[in-house]
Write a structure and sequence with these properties.
The chain is α+β, with helices and mostly antiparallel strands. The protein contains eleven helices and ten strands. α4 packs across α7. It is globular and about 80 Å long.
């Protein structure tokens, strides 16, 4: 079924993204995987190409276009290229909205130009060793010292943790407030007491630097408070729908791409004297995955349109996130199986997709959390 949600402008942007990936990312990606981190030059190149800060107003160096369909194009093409390491979706769609919607005019002028040029790489630090989706479990504290905060605590599993120049930290500013006593503080590279731990050794997404962060009596100026004091819970809930949509878009794009390459593989690979595609079981497997992808794509495209119009609610974003990522996981497993022993070899794309994609049902809120959100909306 032909997709109907994109215009000629979106199609032209897709070609721009593909050209960028072919020139600036794909030739270097294997080296980045070995290094465990992407080059800062790639971020600068993305900035020059206009891929960063798509929704940031033009006066700060951004694209000035909040149409989420452009972000969807980015997510789809980066997924097809297997280039999760260059986390432009995290930068644009997760952290960007905090800066554009919550920052003061002074903060915008200080941070957004570099955000759009690639000179300032960003991260958000919410997860802690003992607190993931449960915000009430956050132990990182910020003590009010008049003209500044004293920040203490640690975070883990922080994407862009090594490269980040600007980290939005979720910290407890009112100890007795629980989840409603949290604030967002912006910690910048070079602040005394801000330390990075090891670049974590993951089973997939090897080029994506994921780190532990430590805050030891970090002096954070009062002008680095982002949004309302004790308002982090509302701020986080407001932006989670877009984060989950970005993950969902990548999920269906990955499933479709895996189906595409596996369909080609079974046409070419022979067993028992004929192509695998001639076996009924193989045809049924492909038919099932193709149908699941087509149905999911229809729902996701509707969600993309609704979100671009500001009409997507948290419940449908949660549905999209859990369904698309669980589909991605199932398709990756079945496609690897259809590749046989070759599917277990890193030189085959399906192997890398299998390990890179496994995190999709976990970060941004696990599948179980998504079901809880949906269930509560229906049952109270």
């Amino acid at each position: 079924m032909a997709r109907q949600i994109f215009t000629e402008e979106h199609d032209a942007f897709r070609e721009t993204v593909r050209t960028f990936l072919k020139k600036e990312v794909e030739p270097h990606y294997e080296q980045w995987e070995r290094d465990g981190i992407v080059s800062r030059d790639a971020w600068l190149a993305a900035g020059r190409q206009g891929l960063l800060g798509l929704a940031v107003p033009e006066e700060y160096g951004g694209g000035g276009n909040a149409d989420f369909r452009y972000s969807a194009v980015l997510a789809e093409e980066f997924t097809r290229a297997g280039a999760a390491g260059l986390a432009v979706g995290l930068h644009n769609d997760i952290i960007g909205p905090y800066l554009t919607s919550l920052a003061t005019e002074e903060q915008k002028r200080r941070w957004l130009p570099g955000f759009c040029s690639g000179e300032i790489i960003t991260a958000i630090a919410m997860t802690e060793p003992g607190a993931g989706s449960d915000l009430q479990g956050i132990r990182t504290t910020a003590e009010d010292r008049g003209d500044h905060w004293i920040l203490n605590g640690s975070k883990t599993f922080i994407s862009n943790g090594i490269l980040a120049d600007l980290v939005v930290v979720v910290a407890k500013t009112t100890p007795e407030g629980g989840a409603h006593g949290l604030s967002l503080l912006v910690v910048e590279r070079g602040m005394e007491g801000f330390e990075r731990g090891r670049n974590l050794d993951k089973i997939g997404q090897k080029a994506q630097d994921t780190a532990e962060l430590f805050f030891n009596d970090v002096r954070v100026p009062k002008e680095n408070l982002l949004g309302e004091l004790n308002g982090a819970f509302i701020h986080l809930m407001t932006n989670l729908a877009q984060e989950r949509m970005g993950i969902a878009v990548a999920g269906i794009a990955a499933a479709e791409h895996l189906l595409e390459i596996t369909t080609q593989y079974v046409k070419e690979r022979e067993a028992f004297g004929r192509p695998l595609a001639k076996l009924q079981h193989i045809r049924f497997e492909i038919a099932e995955m193709a149908t699941e992808c087509a149905v999911t794509r229809t729902f996701l495209d509707r969600c993309i349109v609704d979100h671009s119009a500001g009409q997507l609610d948290a419940v449908h974003a949660s549905m999209a996130k859990w369904w698309a990522t669980e589909l991605q996981k199932r398709v990756a497993d079945r496609c690897l199986q259809l590749h046989g022993g070759y599917g277990y070899m890193n030189e085959y794309r399906v192997a890398k997709a299998f390990t890179d994609g496994r995190i999709q049902t976990i970060y941004g809120g696990t599948t179980e959390i998504m079901k809880e959100i949906i269930g509560r909306s229906l049952l109270g």
